[in-house]
User: Which sequence fits this backbone?
């Protein structure tokens, strides 16, 4: 009898273990788990750099063009405003996750809205990440190929395809093989440092040109001639939102922390660091190039990609990319708070959540409308 009970208990324990194995994240979340030997939790600085690297990407190159469109003062204020909204949306996710002991964004959406909520988030993350990968590898392929061709001349071995292949195999592949995000803290710090170096170089050149008197006065406010110019201002919103998307990595970083109370200071420090880099980059780049500032990232899809149905692909990427970023960054976190699966949302939280959804939907809708009108005008001209 005792043996039978023991076997039943063993079977139940095994079943529970199997269920737990199916629902736990790929990355270990506890020190006791396999893969955390001699690991005492991620450091504060390492977590800040890892989150900052998630935020700062190829989108930083699109911010000066947004400043050109919005004007210097409104543009810089918008960078700060979106950073504050991002901090609020991440705080919503983390508070709900800590209350329910949830270790991933997808799990939280599943708890709040079931399977379809989780699928909607996963689809948005996939779309957003495909855009990030395309813009990042495309920029890397063009940049590094140009350097190698300048040094050694044009050869097969330094063509764009070979540069991307070597970078993927010998840089990306080793980095993604680490079991813990904290292992990437040094490379993340290097990435942030390179962004700061870019800011310093841009600032230095701009200051020298200001001293020499060769820089024109930057446009402080947008030029509004008619209603269409007002709609066009909203096309800068998706660029600003995309620049701060990091929500899908917050849980992975939080899982590696011994002290969960550090999560909020880490998020604030990272957002402050990235906002400073964004503001400096936008200000000095726009000061340097003025109205000649060119678009990047999203606007790159306006060019001919040299593939069949290129223009159709361009438009699909612009529409879906802008929408996915808004969903991940603001609408989904606000929806979780409104559903309030753990009963922790205050009246202020729900008012903020509704405000975020309204702002996100209205601004993104107007931006998409403006893009659609530009597409139709382009076809009429053609």
Assistant:
């Amino acid at each position: 009898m005792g043996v039978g009970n023991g076997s039943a208990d063993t079977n139940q324990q095994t079943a529970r273990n199997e269920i737990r194995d199916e629902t736990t994240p790929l990355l270990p979340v506890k020190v006791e788990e396999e893969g955390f030997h001699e690991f005492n939790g991620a450091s504060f600085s390492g977590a800040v750099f890892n989150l900052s690297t998630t935020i700062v990407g190829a989108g930083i190159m699109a911010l000066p063009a947004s400043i050109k469109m919005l004007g210097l003062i409104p543009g810089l204020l918008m960078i700060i405003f979106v950073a504050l909204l991002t901090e609020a949306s991440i705080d919503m996710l983390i508070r709900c996750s800590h209350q329910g002991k949830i270790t991933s964004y997808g799990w939280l959406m599943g708890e709040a809205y079931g399977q379809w909520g989780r699928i909607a988030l996963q689809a948005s993350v996939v779309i957003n990440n495909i855009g990030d990968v395309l813009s990042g590898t495309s920029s890397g392929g063009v940049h590094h190929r140009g350097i190698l061709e300048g040094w050694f001349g044009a050869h097969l071995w330094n063509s764009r395809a070979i540069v991307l292949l070597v970078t993927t195999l010998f840089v990306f592949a080793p980095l993604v093989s680490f079991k813990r995000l904290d292992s990437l803290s040094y490379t993340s710090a290097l990435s942030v440092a390179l962004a700061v170096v870019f800011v310093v170089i841009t600032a230095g050149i701009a200051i020298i040109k200001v001293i020499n008197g060769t820089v024109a006065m930057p446009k402080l406010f947008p030029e509004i001639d008619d209603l269409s110019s007002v709609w066009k201002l909203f096309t800068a919103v998706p660029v600003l939102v995309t620049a701060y998307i990091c929500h899908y990595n917050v849980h992975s970083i939080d899982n590696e922390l011994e002290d969960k109370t550090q999560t909020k200071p880490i998020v604030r420090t990272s957002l402050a660091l990235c906002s400073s880099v964004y503001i400096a980059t936008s200000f000095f780049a726009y000061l340097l190039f003025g109205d000649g500032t060119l678009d990047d990232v999203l606007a790159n899809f306006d060019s001919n990609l040299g593939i069949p149905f290129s223009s159709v692909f361009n438009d699909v990427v612009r529409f879906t990319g802008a929408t996915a970023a808004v969903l991940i960054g603001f609408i989904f976190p606000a929806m979780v708070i409104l559903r309030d699966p753990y009963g922790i949302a205050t009246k202020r939280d729900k008012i903020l959540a509704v405000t975020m959804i309204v702002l996100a939907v209205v601004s993104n809708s107007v931006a998409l409308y403006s893009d659609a009108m530009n597409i139709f005008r382009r076809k009429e001209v053609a």
